[in-house]
């Protein structure tokens, strides 16, 4: 055999994928084929020939696939269009032999018989359909509707009865009831309702409440109010307390409301609200509120609103007893509406939820429950004895060895003072300082004694306070101020001396400033200068020098200017070796401001020569891991006084001169015409 070899095995320039082929085939399916030519039949022979060909086509389609019911239906409908009813009936029967469970087939068969007014045939088909497939509701609906349209009410009722024997779903029962109501058969409809309710009781495990409500509304609609009430009562009894549903009680209450039985309505709502879980009774609350707004008084409306909110808070605190914010809201509600005993009961329940961990951050919200409880007993209930018991119980509960709350001690002491029981207040504050000393406790106790003008007690308390916290500068200052107010200057000065002699202080600058201000007030300028000198021995901070100079300036003597200038001179010499150049610049600027206001031209010129030159520099940065992090620009100061920096200044001046010459030469190159004009001129 001949073999052909492909010479060019390279891929084609235009590649066609399988997806493109499929898409093109799909697009061509949409192209319209030309319609078949119209055929005109002129005689019987041509008609018979046409029928034969069509029947052969249908039979071939059926023979190819017998299970495709649409082919059978098309065949039967074609025969029906030719008025060949017997042939169409035969085709439907053959199709039913193939698939008798097909619902569409039965429907088309029966519709054909009804369309051609073959009523008995249609009845026969419907009987066969409901016998074969009794759970297909559509057959029953169609059958009953046909009998009703034919006026055969007894026959339609008989079909419904047959249907009910199969215990269908809810809608079938309601269709039967509506059928009876259309013909004013109220007693029959009631009997059907009773049968349906009995059916739900015996067959359905969890019957729906809406069927009872529909039954009751049926009785109400036909003015059988006693029967309707009885239906509601039976429903409530049947569901009991285990399966209570708010919809049943809402419907029952609305029925009684329509009958103007308002007390009954109120009893129904309260009965339901007491037994249904609160999260499932939102609609019930809403309807009860609307009812009270319509027919109740103001007190009733407030009661329902408060009751609703109380139930919400109860659910919250049950879910999380340590949710103190929920307890606060709950207590605020009960305080505004209920009696003292109820409020006390809620407070006792709230304070019983002690935080499980003995850490202060967990107790901060909890302790305010006790505070509010004590304030309520004192201000609202006017029970001073119970208030004292609340404070004492709270103080005993707090673990003072780990932490304490100064607020509780101070509130207790203030309460005892309001009760004019000063010894108890002092005893409580003394106990607090002995058990768990805190700055706030000392301050509160001292403030109390100051208000009582017990200055000896204040001195003793300050001594204890400073023994407890000698680093607290505020306490030293307050103690000295107290002695100053009392006129004991030597004692105040001794306190300041003791304070600045402490090895560790939290705010030494504040203490020194207060001491200096104290001496200035006493006009002890020599002692003030000695204080400044002692302070400068400890620190060379620029603000101390500036403050010293300003003090000398404000002394108000003839030699104050020379003294002030001398302080600036000393400060400048002392800060030449200072690493923080910004502080030295600050000093020089303060000095320059002083000279501008009080100095001569010579002194002004001198200070101008001392001012530094500000230059921009770059330095290399390093990351935490030691790698290179780039460069950083910063400003540095070069002081003329520093001889080591003189070469730098000369180099800086030469760089500026060179930069100026470069700029001038560049400007000349950019504008040659200007040079020619200048040369001509």
UniProtKB/TrEMBL annotation:
<keyword id="KW-0508">mRNA splicing</keyword>
<comment type="function">
    <text>Involved in pre-mRNA splicing process. As a component of the minor spliceosome, involved in the splicing of U12-type introns in pre-mRNAs.</text>
</comment>
<feature type="compositionally biased region" description="Acidic residues">
    <location>
        <begin position="666"/>
        <end position="681"/>
    </location>
</feature>
<keyword id="KW-0539">Nucleus</keyword>
<dbReference type="GO" id="GO:0016607">
    <property type="term" value="C:nuclear speck"/>
</dbReference>
<dbReference type="GO" id="GO:0071007">
    <property type="term" value="C:U2-type catalytic step 2 spliceosome"/>
</dbReference>
<comment type="similarity">
    <text>Belongs to the crooked-neck family.</text>
</comment>
<dbReference type="InterPro" id="IPR011990">
    <property type="entry name" value="TPR-like_helical_dom_sf"/>
</dbReference>
<dbReference type="InterPro" id="IPR055430">
    <property type="entry name" value="HAT_Syf1_CNRKL1_C"/>
</dbReference>
<feature type="coiled-coil region">
    <location>
        <begin position="518"/>
        <end position="584"/>
    </location>
</feature>
<dbReference type="GO" id="GO:0071011">
    <property type="term" value="C:precatalytic spliceosome"/>
</dbReference>
<dbReference type="InterPro" id="IPR045075">
    <property type="entry name" value="Syf1-like"/>
</dbReference>
<keyword id="KW-0507">mRNA processing</keyword>
<keyword id="KW-0175">Coiled coil</keyword>
<feature type="domain" description="Pre-mRNA-splicing factor Syf1/CRNKL1-like C-terminal HAT-repeats">
    <location>
        <begin position="70"/>
        <end position="360"/>
    </location>
</feature>
<keyword id="KW-0747">Spliceosome</keyword>
<dbReference type="Pfam" id="PF23231">
    <property type="entry name" value="HAT_Syf1_CNRKL1_C"/>
</dbReference>
<dbReference type="GO" id="GO:0000974">
    <property type="term" value="C:Prp19 complex"/>
</dbReference>
<keyword id="KW-0677">Repeat</keyword>
<dbReference type="GO" id="GO:0000245">
    <property type="term" value="P:spliceosomal complex assembly"/>
</dbReference>
<dbReference type="InterPro" id="IPR003107">
    <property type="entry name" value="HAT"/>
</dbReference>
<feature type="region of interest" description="Disordered">
    <location>
        <begin position="661"/>
        <end position="681"/>
    </location>
</feature>
<protein>
    <recommendedName>
        <fullName>Crooked neck-like protein 1</fullName>
    </recommendedName>
</protein>
<feature type="domain" description="Pre-mRNA-splicing factor Syf1/CRNKL1-like C-terminal HAT-repeats">
    <location>
        <begin position="370"/>
        <end position="533"/>
    </location>
</feature>
<keyword id="KW-0597">Phosphoprotein</keyword>
<dbReference type="GO" id="GO:0071014">
    <property type="term" value="C:post-mRNA release spliceosomal complex"/>
</dbReference>
């Amino acid at each position: 055999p001949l073999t052909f070899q492909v010479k060019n095995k390279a891929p084609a320039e235009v590649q066609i994928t399988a997806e493109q082929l499929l898409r093109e085939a799909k697009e061509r399916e949409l192209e319209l084929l030309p319609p078949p030519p119209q055929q005109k039949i002129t005689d019987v022979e041509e008609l018979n020939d046409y029928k034969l060909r069509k029947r052969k086509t249908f039979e071939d389609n059926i023979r190819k696939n017998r299970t495709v019911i649409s082919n059978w239906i098309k065949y039967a409908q074609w025969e029906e269009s030719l008025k060949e009813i017997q042939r169409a009936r035969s085709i439907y029967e053959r199709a039913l032999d193939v698939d008798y469970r097909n619902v569409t087939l039965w429907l088309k068969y029966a519709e054909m018989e009804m369309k051609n007014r073959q009523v008995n045939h249609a009845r026969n088909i419907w009987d066969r359909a409901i016998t074969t497939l009794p759970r297909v509701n559509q057959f029953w609906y169609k059958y009953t509707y046909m009998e009703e349209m034919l006026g055969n009410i007894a026959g339609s009722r008989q079909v419904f009865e047959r249907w009910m024997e199969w215990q269908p779903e809810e809608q079938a029962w309601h269709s039967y009831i509506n059928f009876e109501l259309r013909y004013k058969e109220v007693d029959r409809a009631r009997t059907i309702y009773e049968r349906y309710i009995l059916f739900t009781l015996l067959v359905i495990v969890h019957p729906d409440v809406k069927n009872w409500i529909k039954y009751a509304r049926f009785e109400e609609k036909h003015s059988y109010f006693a029967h309707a009430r009885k239906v509601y009562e039976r429903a409530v009894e049947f569901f009991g307390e285990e399966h209570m549903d708010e919809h049943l009680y809402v419907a029952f209450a609305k029925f009684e409301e329509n009958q103007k039985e308002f007390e009954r309505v109120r009893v129904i709502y309260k009965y339901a609200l007491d037994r249904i879980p609160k999260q499932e009774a939102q609609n019930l609350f809403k309807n009860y509120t609307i009812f009270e707004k319509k027919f109740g008084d103001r007190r009733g409306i407030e009661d329902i609103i408060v009751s609703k909110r109380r139930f919400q808070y109860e659910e919250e605190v049950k879910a999380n007893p340590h949710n103190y914010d929920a307890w606060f809201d709950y207590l605020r509600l009960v305080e505004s509406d209920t009696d003292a005993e109820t409020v006390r009961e809620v407070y006792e329940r709230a304070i019983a939820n002690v935080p499980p961990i003995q850490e202060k951050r967990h107790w901060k919200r909890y302790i305010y429950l006790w505070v509010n409880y004590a304030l309520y007993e004192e201000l609202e209930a006017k029970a001073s004895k119970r208030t004292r018991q609340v404070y004492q119980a709270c103080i005993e509960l707090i673990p003072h060895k780990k932490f304490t709350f100064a607020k509780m001690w101070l509130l207790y002491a203030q309460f005892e003072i309001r009760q004019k029981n000063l010894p108890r207040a002092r005893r409580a504050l003394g106990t607090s300082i002995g058990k768990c000393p805190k700055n706030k406790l000392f301050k509160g106790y001292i403030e109390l004694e100051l208000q009582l003008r017990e200055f000896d007690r204040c001195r003793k308390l300050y001594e204890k306070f400073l023994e407890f916290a000698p680093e607290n500068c505020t306490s030293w200052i307050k103690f000295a101020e107290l002695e100053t107010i009392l006129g004991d200057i030597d004692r105040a000065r001794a306190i300041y001396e003791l304070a600045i002699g402490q090895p560790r202080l939290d705010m030494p600058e504040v203490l020194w400033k207060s001491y200096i201000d104290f001496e200035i007030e006493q006009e002890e300028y020599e002692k003030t200068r000695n204080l400044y000198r002692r302070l400068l021995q400890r620190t060379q901070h620029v603000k101390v020098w500036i403050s010293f100079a300003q003090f000398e300036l404000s002394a108000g003597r003839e030699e104050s200017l020379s003294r002030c200038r001398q302080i600036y001179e000393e400060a400048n010499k002392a800060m030449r070796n200072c690493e923080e150049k910004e502080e030295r610049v600050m000093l020089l600027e303060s000095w320059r401001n002083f000279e501008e206001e009080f100095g001569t031209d010579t002194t002004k010129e001198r200070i101008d020569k001392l001012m530094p030159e500000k230059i921009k520099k770059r330095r290399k940065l390093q990351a935490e891991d030691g790698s290179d992090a780039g460069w950083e620009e910063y400003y540095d100061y070069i002081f003329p006084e520093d001889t080591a920096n003189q070469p730098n200044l000369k180099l800086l001046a030469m760089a500026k001169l060179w930069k100026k010459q470069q700029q001038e030469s560049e400007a000349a190159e950019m504008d040659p015409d200007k040079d020619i004009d200048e040369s001509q001129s």
